[in-house]
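Usage

Read records sequentially. Each one opens with the input sequence:
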Amino acid sequence: MHSSDKRQFYTNKRVFVTGACGTIGKELIRQLLEEHQVAELIGVDNNESELFFLEHRFSDFPNARFFLADVRDVDKMTRKMRHMQIVFHTAAFKHVILCERSPYEAVQTNIIGMQNVIRAATDNKADRVIFTSSDKAVNPTNVMGTSKLMGERLVTAANSNNRGGRTLYVSTRFGNVLGSRGSVIPIFREQIKRGGPVTLTNTQMTRFIMSIKEAVRLVIDSAVLARGGEVFITKMPIMKVSDLALVMISHLAESFGHCPDSIDIQVIGVKPGEKMYEELMCSEETRRALELPDYFAVLPAFKSLYANIVYDYPEVVSQTVNTPYHSGNDRCLTKAELADFLIQNDLLHEDPRLCSHPAERIWPRGL
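and closes with the structure output:
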C-alpha cells in the first residue's frame, strides 16, 4: 500500500487507542502522531504509572490526550470515544498462564471489554473499529486464545448486525512481535548476560515473527483496506526458537564477557497449553480467504444481514487459498537470515523504554 494513500486516509482524522501503554499501543500512537497528520488522538489505559510516562513522551503533540480508563467500563468508553472516527482496540490480557489461572478476569477484559468497545463505537457512530487479535485465536488451546477468538467473533457479528450504521468492524491477526513485553528475546538476553543456561521449551518449536514497527504498520494498513467483518492475517517470516537462541548467543555472549561456547542450552519442556507451531489461519478459514500482497483476508462466514458488502481490495494475489497458514508448513529463516532480521530491526540490544525482564522461566505447578 502506498504511503501517500495511508497519509491521506488518516489526515485530520480523530483516532482513539485502547491499551495505549502496551507495546503495540505505544508504537501505534507514535506512528499516528509522527508519521500521519491526525487531528486528534486519545489514548486510554488502566496503568497509571505507564500512562504518566506516556503523556510525557508525547508532550510535544498538543493534539494527543491520555486518560485513565478501563475497557470494562462501558460508560467511560462511550464518553471518551465521543466524536472519534477510528478506534484501535489493543487492550487485552495476553499472558497464557495468568489467564488460565484467572479465566473470569480474561473474560471481563478480553471479551466483555471488546463488547464495550463495540457498543461505545456504535453509539458514537465511529467510522471504523480495528481489533488487534492473536495467532492464539486459531484452534485455541487455552483461555487467552479462546478469549481472543471470541473477540474476533464479536467484531464480525457487530459488522453483520450493523443495521443502517456507518461503522465498519475488522480484526487483524498476527504472531510473535519480537522485542515486545512478554517476548522471549529479553529473557534470552538476560540469560546470556548471566552466562547461561539459555532455556528452550523444545528444540523443534517454530514461530512466526515480526518487529514492533512492522506489526503496527500493518495494523494501520488494515484500517485502510477494511470493507467490514474481515480478519486480516499478516504474512510473516518463520523461525525456529532454537535458532534464535543460537544466534543471540553468537552475537551477544562476548559483549557480556562470556565465550559463546561456554553458554549451555537447556531444554525445560513445553508449558501447559503451548503449541509446537503457530497457526494464523486454519483449514476452515482457507475456504473463504483471499491472498493480498501483505495479508490473507478471511471473509466472514456469515455475511452482513443489512448490507451487500463488496470485498474489492486494490490488489489481489489470488482468489483462493489452499493451505492452512501455520509455522510448520513453510520454510524457516536460516540462522544468517534470522541474524539479519534481528540486526535490521535493532532487536539484539535492550530497549531502554521497556521494563527489565527476569532471566528465569518458570512453569507454575498448579492453577
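Summary fields computed downstream for this record:
- Residues 36 and 363 are 42 Å apart (CA to CA).
- The chain has a mean pLDDT of 90.
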